């Protein structure tokens, strides 16, 4: 077999390895998958405008967010059900993130508990120290992604557990008041294989009973029966358990209930970016959930510029520094990360790329993905004449649609 040269090579292997149930869950987007496709193709429309004769003998990828130094602006996005990819699931991913000094966010829908992920991360950090290995970044840097449940006592307990386990920020996903229209998952009546379980819900008796969680984990929910309505079990779980009545007022409630920085994940408009600043959140993640929620929304790269202007203006009105902007969706190259940063992101997150690494070779596979993307980013920076992330701005990219627009004038 030829050597792995890029994340696409790893994706191809993962596609061959996964069964249809898991592959469709990971790979597909909502409805006609317009946004999923756009997430990728839109990156190609942005051209790089390199500067030359700059000293790029040293290129520093590190960034600081909320006082924490990360080795790179490429962070691991929260993705659920990682044991579908590899038997070590979230444990493998968090260990890889520790080894690479990468930011890591654990999903509410993990197949491993908050406590087990935290303890694996701490052990991995100790193992690195005992081998005398250093990473270019601070220890820690792990965040917890929260879906807000109708039963607020569950949400509060998850927050307390994340705090106790040393997670350093809360990522509140706001683009999934209900589950997107995921046709492939419907057709497959997607459910968890019987040997897997969700990592965090066992202690919530009411939730287990009301969502037939025990049944789904034992694989005893027959496909296509009334129990699996509407369409399939995950859709039913989100409909029954997650709170679609969430509003900006609830952000105040969250702020009252934790001292951790709060990031909102799933912002796509400058109006909501302004509201996020107004309501005092600490950061936003410009995301369309990897094309899995509302199909037909823009690719994130296309809205970054106006969102970053809005964040700057709204923050200035409060006499505050702009809150960090993180972007995700379709990033498969270090040059994609470069373009997103140029258009206004402080950092980016990768979802599927990590999952492909996990399928390919567990912890080492995720390390390989992070290494490849970081090296590609380093290359893009050096060849563009940037030696620090803070030097990357919109002067380094040309949005071809605006070029076409100008040529028509
Ligand atoms: C299989 C899968 C599971 C996901 N699970 C979650 C989740 O539990 N919580 C969440 O906020 N986002 C979730 N996401 C969205 C990711 O956090 C991220 O926004 C998206 O994957 C970025 O796009 P990309 O996969 O093209 O990199 C999931 C995405 C995928 C592909
Ligand atoms: C919205 C509730 C369940 C979602 C499961 C994980 C996830 O976010 C995804 O995109 O899939």
Describe the model.
The chain contains 16 helices and twelve strands. Helix content is 45%, strand content 11%. The model has no long low-confidence stretch (mean pLDDT 93). It is an alpha/beta fold. The strands form three sheets. It has an eight-stranded parallel beta sheet with strand order 4-11-10-9-8-7-6-5. Strands 1-12 form a two-stranded antiparallel sheet. A two-stranded antiparallel ribbon has the order 2-3. It has a single domain, classed as Aldolase class I (TIM Barrel). β6, α6 and β7 (170-173) form a beta-alpha-beta unit. The protein has helices spanning 7-17, 20-27, 34-45, 89-100, 114-130, 152-164, 183-187, 205-210, 213-217, 233-241, 248-257, 270-278, 300-317, 334-342, 352-384, 400-408; strands spanning 46-48, 63-65, 68-70, 74-76, 104-106, 142-146, 170-173, 262-267, 283-286, 325-328, 347-350, 397-399. The chain binds flavin mononucleotide and the ligand CCCCCCC(=O)C(=O)O. The ligand CCCCCCC(=O)C(=O)O binds at residues 80, 109, 147, 176, 179, 234, 238, 242, 289, 292. The ligand CCCCCCC(=O)C(=O)O is lined by residues 80, 109, 147, 176, 179, 234, 238, 242, 289, 292.
Structural class: alpha/beta
Regions with little confidence, pLDDT below 50 for 5+ residues: none
Helix content: 40-55%
- Strand content is 5-15%
What small molecules accompany the polymer chains?
Answer: flavin mononucleotide, ligand LXCWX6NK
What is the end-to-end distance? 51 Å
CATH domain class name: Alpha Beta
Main β-sheet, spatial strand arrangement? 4-11-10-9-8-7-6-5
- The total count of helices amounts to 16
Average pLDDT: 93
- Would you count the extended β strands for me? 12
